[in-house]
Amino acid sequence: MFNVLQGDATAVNGLIDHPDVKAVSFVGSTPIARHVATSATERGKRVQALGGAKNHMIVLPDADLELAADAAVSAGYGSAGERCMAISVVVAVDPVGDELVDAIVERAKALVITDGRDSTADMGPLVTATHRDRVRSYVDLGVDEGATLVLDGRDIVVDGRPDGFWLGPCLFDHVTTEMRIWSEEIFGPVLAVVRVSTYDEAVELVERSPFGNGVALFTRDGGAARRFQQQVEAGMVGINVPIPVPVSYHSFGGWGASLFGDTKAHGTEGVHFYTRAKTVTARWADPATRGPDLGFPRNT
Predict the structure, then answer these.
(1) Rg for the chain, CA atoms, rounded
(2) What is the value of pTM for the model shown?
(3) Does residue 70 carry a pLDDT above 90?
(4) CA nearest 59: which of 231, 228, 233, 253?
(5) Going by C-beta distance under 8 Å and a sequence separation of 6 or more, which residues neighbour residue 23?
(6) Which DSSP helix (H) or strand (E) runs through 263?
(7) Enzyme catalytic residues
(8) What pLDDT digit, counting tens, does each position of 24-49 carry?
(9) What pLDDT shows up at residue 46?
(10) Contact 23, 273 (CB under 8 A)
(11) Which of 181, 78, 87 is nearest to 137 (CA)?
(12) What is the C-alpha separation between 46 and 25, in angstroms, rounded?
């Protein structure tokens, strides 16, 4: 039986405390993932807790900028940015910043924002009014922090649907690592562009984030790609792939503050999480072999 229970911390803690529950799998924010992992582990349960993310996409000077801009818009604004594998930060390595930002703006302005049931829709509303207001407050914060708001979706109007939880695509440029819009998970259609001078600076910036869920690199340089995929501290890596969600027979999950517990989801690790190994040793002995034997059992 598959049962969906709606509830808050009371329901969560009740599930964790229940003696019949042997394992707990969770997907959500990092603070709650940490709570679930700590509480369930203390009670001797197996835990798989996937937390938050702040996924970065690095664009090197040799990258196909048209492809990179398409990817940034698709990964940043798809599902209104409300997914753990959304790209939140684009790291533009000099001198591609201006051209890349212009290309992202051009594409984002062309998105159709309307009811998701409309076949023409590219992006729908946010999940609740409360969450829409929270995401909007981050846009206000980014302006206050001094980032350049290149594309402002706060005042979007959708014809015939005035009560929707609407927020259009927002794009910040000249974001720095001191800003909360860089460091905190926003979970909405807000994309931040950080400009750096070198590849090494870009990787260092990515690894400064406590999250290690997904990361992407756009380049035509195979050597840079191999170096990046071996060097970067993240659980899922994309090379010219903006949302590096692995196919289901590979495991899904990040590093750092993006994952707590024993195993990742899907793949062989997912199988191990939902099963327990049992080893059976049996012997159907011939009467002729009877008698004490103080050595280890043998396959005879």
Answers:
(1) 24
(2) 0.90
(3) yes
(4) 228
(5) 45, 46, 47, 48, 273, 274
(6) none
(7) 84
(8) 999 999 999 999 999 999 999 999 99
(9) 93
(10) yes
(11) 181
(12) 8
Phi, psi of 160 (to 5 degrees): 80, 0
- Cα separation, 178 vs 181, whole angstroms: 9
Tokens of 205: 């910036």
pLDDT bracket for residue 297 (50, 70, 90): low
Give residue 294's pLDDT band: very low, low, confident or very high (50, 70, 90): confident
Fold of 55-239: Aldehyde Dehydrogenase; Chain A, domain 2 (3.40.309)
Residue 47's CB is within 10 A of a number of other CB atoms, namely 22
E strands, 107-243, in order: 148-151, 170-173, 190-196, 211-212, 214-218, 236-239
Over residues 133-158, mean pLDDT? 98
Q: What does the pLDDT read at residue 72? A: 98
Amino acid at 215: V
* 217-226: long-range contacts, CB 8 A cutoff, minimum separation 24: 217/57, 217/58, 217/60, 218/57, 218/58, 218/59, 218/60, 218/63, 218/64, 218/67, 218/68, 218/71, 219/60, 219/62, 219/63, 220/62, 220/63, 220/64, 221/60, 221/62, 224/60, 224/199
Neighbours of 293 (CB within 10 A): 9
- CA separation for the pair 40, 46 (Å, rounded): 7
Instruction: Collapse the DSSP code of 65 into the 3-class scheme (helix H, G, I; strand E, B; otherwise coil) and give the result.
Output: helix
Distances (CA, A) of 183 to 12, 67, 206, 221: 27, 26, 10, 29
pLDDT at 1 over 80: no
Give one word for 134, left, alpha or beta, with left for phi > 0 and alpha for psi -120 to 50.
Answer: alpha
Per-residue tokens: 177? 């690592």
Domain ranges of the chain: 9-51+258-273, 55-239
